[in-house]
Write a structure and sequence with these properties.
A seven-stranded mixed beta sheet has the order 1-2-5-6-7-8-9, with helices on both faces. Strands 3-4 form a two-stranded antiparallel sheet. The radius of gyration is 17 Å and the shape is globular. By secondary structure, it is α/β, with parallel strands linked by helices. It is built from eight helices and nine strands. The longest helix has 21 residues. The termini are far apart. Helix 1 packs parallel to helix 2.
Length: about 230
């Protein structure tokens, strides 16, 4: 889709008088700065129609082991233009380090980096796929950090790559956060559902997330994990 196509869809929704019903805007991979600019225009319009709406940005830039994999100019646009306008951001560990110009390895360093990122605009940061020094090598962490606290949850590490798991995580976290605006509760519910669905996908030997066949895992997950307040 071109930015013009997206603009036309948003205009069409607005012309029907329903854009104000939107509780949030969620964005992921943006492809080009022109698309990013259109996403921001959509966010601005939604907030005009519903001042209580929030913008959740999954700042897709790269990942550990792969480095930056988006087009030139996108990382800078994400850092300079998009993230400051977001209310919630969901970077993975690599993206957190890129956006803050740091190299974080400990929980304290990750929390400091998340605080710096919040100082640029977002009120809530969800760090996904966090690998922390001293932690069990067979686990991976997610950390939600806001001005009034920080929370951590660990799940077992599944030894494979999943296409779309970041999109799934951002969408679920936003949905659970919208329900009661409690970052810790949203973190736990997201970890339970994401891990349970990824585990079902792994056990089925599927190359695609089992979003339809294992959809029950999203609302009634098989696995549950303890959320720890860490700040």
């Amino acid at each position: 889709l071109s930015p013009a196509d997206v603009a036309e869809v948003i205009t069409g929704i607005d012309e029907r008088g329903v854009l104000g019903r939107a509780d949030a805007v969620l964005s992921g991979y943006q492809g080009a700065a022109e698309m990013g600019a259109q996403v921001l225009a959509a966010v601005e319009l939604v907030k005009q129609r519903n001042p209580e709406a929030i913008y959740c940005c999954d700042p897709v830039i790269g990942d550990v082991g792969r480095g930056i994999y988006v087009r030139p100019g996108i990382p800078e646009f994400m850092s300079d233009e998009v993230v400051p306008k977001a209310d919630v951001v969901t970077p993975n560990h690599f993206e957190l380090d890129y956006l803050t110009g740091r190299r974080t390895t400990t929980l304290a360093e990750v929390l400091d980096a998340a605080a710096e990122l919040r100082s640029h605009g977002p009120k809530l940061v969800l760090v996904t796929s966090a690998v922390l020094a001293g932690a069990d090598a067979d686990s991976v962490a997610m950390i939600a950090a806001a001005d009034d606290g920080a929370w951590l949850v660990r799940t077992p590490l599944l030894e494979r790559n999943f296409t779309g798991s970041g999109d799934l995580t951002a969408a679920l976290f936003l949905a659970h956060y919208l329900a009661d605006r409690d970052p810790g509760t949203a973190l736990g519910a997201t970890a339970d559902a994401v891990y349970s669905l990824l585990r079902a996908t792994t056990e089925a030997g599927s190359s695609e997330l089992l979003l339809a066949p294992a959809q029950s895992q999203l609302v009634d997950p098989d696995y549950h994990f303890t959320v720890e307040q860490v700040g």
